[in-house]
Amino acid sequence: MPMPHIEYTTADTAVEQIRTGDYLYWPCVAAAPELLIQALVRRADRGGLSDLHVSHFYTEGYADYVLPQYKGIFQLNSFFVGANVRKATQGGQADYIPCSLSECPRFITSGTLGCDVVMLTVSEPDSQGRVSLGTSVDYMPEAIGRARVVLAQVNSHMPYTYGDALLQLTAGGPTGTAIAMGGREVPTLLVRHDQPLAEAGRAPLTDTDRAIGRHAAALIPDGATLQIGIGNIPTAVLAQLMDHKDLGVHSEMFTDDVIPLVEKGIINGRLKKTDPGKLVAMFLKGNQPLYDFVDHNPQVLMKDVGYTNSPMVIAQNPRVVALNSAIEIDLSGQVCSDSIGSRIFSGSGGQLDFILGATYSQGGIPIIAMPSMTAKGRSKIVPTLTPGAGVVTPRTLTQWVVTEHGAVNLYGRSLRERAQLLISIADPSQRESLEAAARAL
Asked: Residue 152 pairs with which residues in a beta bridge?
């Protein structure tokens, strides 16, 4: 298809398409279209807008739409709570939709949630008029297919990735440009904004991180398909895999830490049953080396979250290792990962999706890996969960639990045995009190 003629408008003009009562969506992390979001907040400042419903995954940076002065104008109902909206969510200015991320596309296609406007960041168009969602696909294909209009921020720094990330621009419609999606041509306004993508930085690994990494990596067999997440523990685990062979990646996301393993041929995806040879993810979080690595890289396959996080798709690969973390775990194996008591801290994310996928994968290994203590000196292995805490992974599905003190497998174990095993990997200073609590329980 030949390249359509493209006309650009300004962000302030583009957001004039938004109406009172609209449901809005935008992608996560480095792909959040901050120029358009800022223009939307400026429009709200001018008056005439109210009852705007916003949903997104984990974002960083600018989020003034959750400030108290915008009550009645913006209502954020996020699918995962990042640090930039956490205070507002805990304080009642924003809210959270409990969900596994695999369900988010269905919220839109089923009509459970409305969808009027999608705001995006996309790559430079190619010679065929295709742009790429780059670092975050999320559930954008479903949202675009249902939207009244798309507002797209074109950024030459956004890497061009393949799979569900590719969008076809066409000519025509009331805005002069459209995106072909789901048998429709969705009216689209393009805004030019070239800016380097936000980078994640790197926190130094602690001795605790390294110990957890060693214990978790010892569970990972050659030929495993990895689900990896954000933070120092996944970094520490990947650093321990330099002597492994034939690893694959099918994950919600990945970071710069996979690059050395790919370059050494350790991650090659050769033994995967779905998408062999491909690194599969729905979003990326990292730094410029990661953006350079994925740009026009056919080995990287960016897919919709309904695919990456489908337990049925995940389970088709053999030896799936699902590596997830927790805020706390009780002595029966209940895992809380989304809240501190009743205060929402993050979200369920894809934890249950991948725990289920690994559970039903041939030779799969579901892992919950965490430090034994919080930064404030409280045990993360507790007799019972804090009142109000959400159970993200039920005890019926919890298998391997890893701390810096070792790894234990709760699969097929009784309540008494589970308590004994978990106490054995708790911080030594906490074991006596946990044993007394276990006896009382």
From this structure: 120, 190
